Amino acid sequence: MTATFFQDIVQQFVLSKEQVQNIINGLTEELVEGLSTNDPKNITQQPSFITRLPTGKETGLYLAIDMGGTNLRTAAVHLLGDGQVGVTMEKHEITQELKTGTGEAMFDWIADCTAALLKTVALDMGNAELQMGVTFSFAIQQTAINRGKVLAMGKGFNLSDVMGKDLKDLLEDGFTRKGLNVKVSAIINDTVGTLVSHAYVSPSTKIGVILATGTNAAYIERASEVSKYNGPPCDQMILNTEWDAMGKASYLPQTKYDKQIDAVSLVPGFQEFEKMISGLYLGELVRLALVDLIEQNAIFEFLGGKVPESLSHRLAFKTLFMSTIESDHTPDHTSVDKVFKTSFGIEGLTSQDRTRVYELVHAVGKRSALMTAAACVALLYKANGASVQLDDPNEITTIGIDGSVFEKYPHFSHSMMESMTEILGQERASRIRLELARDGGCIGAALVAMVAHNGGAV
After folding, report:
1. What is the pLDDT of residue 198?
2. Is 134 in contact with 186 (CB distance < 8 Å)?
3. 240 beta partners
4. pLDDT digits (tens, 9 = 90+) for 311-327
5. N or C: more exposed end of the chain, with fewer CB within 10 A?
6. CB–CB of 318/286 below 8 Å?
7. Cβ–Cβ under 8 Å, residues 273 and 243
8. Is 168 helix (H, G, I), strand (E, B) or coil?
9. Which CATH superfamily is domain 48-202+439-453 in?
């Protein structure tokens, strides 16, 4: 009985070929719809106003900030040409108090962090105006290369007096209040930054993906396809898909645990795809399944069906614990014992307990890799014939991927590539490269800021 219950739980995270194809088809439909609509609750396909990729020859010194779901990074970026950069970067944790406070407090804090960076690099501003590129890892409705209205943020953020306001004004008002002569010359999304910065060093890059606390993707589209674009004429445009919000057509294979996570989130019904694959939620999926398993005596039978207080709290089981468990290749999975003893005070696990925890963790992690691969395939299909040439035997297409899940979760890149091979076939998949793209936010923002400041779109 308990074995059957356990297998039923794990099986919910195993996707069929039909489910994978439904993800590809559904996302493709939403990508097309997003080219003409601006509903912030769906894939918005935001034009970045960036019309070409860098050459690798760009040079200059620019400030950059990268605001993500967990940290703010400030950087002085020296573009050296030949695909080379010099970067001085500082990282600051964004506290929960800041995330749920006022917009003014947030942007004053960003200005303080920028001032600290200038002190670190001993950059004497004098009366000079410093140019900054900004990577903003949240939805904005871009209206120019350096302007965009803030849309729904997600990722635990609930700032007052920010929605609908222009990010350039919010930032520069903060700089002015702190006495900094810094001007925002470019605003990009983190995924656009990943695409631009990785193309600086790897020219075959056509897609950028973020897979960390949250997830998103950017790709290059024919400008003629983007009916809602009202800017200067161009042949192509980098689009910020906001694919985290995919799923409105109910084609996502949600388990009861996915639905539980969505129900208690700040914005239920928003970013369902992100809640199934990204770092903020993977550990919570495991925790919710463990709670069910414990209550049904399908695991940790010595607890008598009672869930310990330490496992009862939302987000108590970190995605980091999953990485630790998946990194252990020993037959008896001793790392499971260490995780539960150290972090939850639970001892006395049997060999079967350890194996079942490992199998559950592996299933949740593998589903994330498969769903991410399916979404990447949808982008490849959408861009095929334009920026991507899937059937050209001489054409390599690189997908630059930034984020802790792709970089640090064991076997994730391998699982993604295996999945893409199953979907695309060996011949097509052999011409796809998945490459780690580090620090894309700051370097990408600096690249776009440099070109924008000098009078042209990238």
Report:
1. 92
2. yes
3. 46, 218
4. 999 999 999 999 999 99
5. N
6. no
7. yes
8. helix
9. ATPase, nucleotide binding domain (3.30.420.40)
